[in-house]
Amino acid sequence: MSRGFDIPFARDGSVRFLPWIVALMVYLAGLALAGALLLDAALDDWSRGVSGVMTVELPPAATEQAGDIAVAPVVALLQATPGVASVKLLPRAAVAKLVEPWLGTGQAIAALALPQLIDVRIDPAHRPDFAALRAKLATAAPGAVLDDARLRFDRLFDLGMSIEVMTVVILVLIGIAAVLTTVFATRAGLAVHQNVIEILHILGARDSYIARQFARHALGLGLRGGVTGLVLAAATLALLGHAAAAAAILGPGLRLVPAITLLPWQWSVLVLVPIAAAAITYFTALATVHGALARMP
Fold first, then answer.
1. In whole angstroms, what is the distance from residue 261 CA to residue 150 CA?
2. What is the total count of domains within the chain?
3. Is the domain of 93 the same as that of 200?
4. Angle at 58 between CA 52 and CA 64, to 5 degrees
């Protein structure tokens, strides 16, 4: 008999594949959930960063004097707009700093006709009427471009939400696959141990006792596979994080691979994945055995 069991599960080869399938499912579920958590945190950071930011771009002026004249009415218009908290004209050096990662430094930028940028901070609770503001800017400074970062973020947010919904669907499908796999393995085990089950019935064992034997065995297999899958997922995330750090050849502000850093509470959520997998295997096996024994004569 298996240690702690009245059914010889140790000689049952029908469920030996179950821990590896659970490990694969937990691995995939862990990576999908980690990606969703990272995406949600990134969207939250971006939302806070762009909620009160707006930029007005003026075409390059032919001369510095002409630039001063063109900027003055635009600044006055912005300052008089309800919902605008502050207006700041970015100096040429600051604008040049923004394009340095792509164009480099030196004479190339010095000779380049750069647009004039006005940094505008707005009140998120009382946002301006952007349609009316664009119309006024077109009159005050033809060619001016009003760039509301929030509009771009809304489209990005919709994409992020779509990805998160897809992640939930993937997790549900993985859960369904785990249930079906456990049902198949449990039914195979019932067929293998049918003679032992009949002897236990003769000795007076109830169906609930036999079902708990199978459920406990499935729980152990599920926990073993779940822990293995979580360890593999954590190792993969660590490797991806190392790759992200190594790919930051242009500095932390410009990465070829996004940073992958999970907070402690996010790791706590990932730890729940193998626990959920073990619970699925336990209750699925319990229900499967109950149902099968109820149909036996």
1. 25
2. 2
3. no
4. 125
